Amino acid sequence: AKREACDPRALGPRVRGMLAQAHPMMRGRWQPRLSGAGRWIVREMEARPQRRVLAVEQEGAIDFAGVTLKGKFDRIDAMGDGTLGVVDYKTGQPPSTKAVRAGYSLQLGLLGLIAERGGFQGFSGRASAFEYWSLARKGGEFGYVQSPVDAAGKYGKMLPDEFVPNAAEKFTETARAYLTGDAPFTAKLHPEYAPYADYDQLMRRDEWYGRERR
After folding, report:
1. Alpha-carbon gap, residue 152 to 9, rounded angstroms
2. CB of 163 closer than 8 Å to CB of 130
3. Alpha-carbon distance 21 to 12, whole Å?
4. CA end-to-end span of the chain, whole Å?
């Protein structure tokens, strides 16, 4: 980002230069994956010639729903029509469209909200694209792009202009209940959207989860 202005073709030389200093075992393990990631990103960027990288890894904040909403994006693109594209990189599986729509993975929408309200330095504007760029394999291929915005998808229509307002509404409901309201924080309120995590051990989850109230 700083030295090559996000030129994707600079990824290959950077990978080789970094791995040249690594232990041969680490080089043998990581070079195929990192080189594949670089080639995939080059192909994806070249398939979108109307877009250009506007900014990477920047923090921002706005006052919203009675609290300070902060966020840090991986990448913001300038789209060909003057709008913004929000990109989040994932090394594994991105959140499901169902979880995003239900309000349990609001990252992309809230980053779009911050951008639209001028919370990031140097740019602002309407967000029209929201994408997860995953480096996992899918269908035997390395890397894929997934978006929760879909005009006619499995979980119903969600247009770009509806995505940020939906995230804002879900966040407002949560903030009013738990942050500015007096609703108690309940662990595993919706377990279907909350897989096992490190905090489960810290709160000794296995000792109490599933017990009936007495």
Report:
1. 34
2. yes
3. 15
4. 58
Pairing relationship of beta strands 156-158 and 67-78 according to DSSP bridges = unpaired
Model confidence over 106-134: pLDDT tens digits?
999 999 999 999 999 999 999 999 999 99
Q: Are 69 and 170 in contact (CB under 8 A)?
A: no
> What is the Cα–Cα distance from 131 to 209, expressed in whole angstroms?
35
If DSSP codes are grouped into helix, strand and coil, which group holds residue 213?
Answer: coil
The residue length of the chain stands at: 214
Mean pLDDT of the 159-173 span: 95
Tell how strand 84-90 and strand 141-146 pair up. unpaired
Let me know how many helices (H) and strands (E) the chain has, helices first: 7, 7
**Spatial distance between the Cα atoms of 75 and 72, rounded to a whole number of angstroms:** 9
Q: Is 13 helix (H, G, I), strand (E, B) or coil?
A: helix
Cα 35 to Cα 181: distance, rounded to the nearest angstrom: 49
Question: 0.90 exceeded by the pTM?
Answer: no
For 17-31, write each residue's pLDDT tens digit. 999 999 999 999 988
State the Cα–Cα distance between residues 81 and 78, nearest whole angstrom: 8
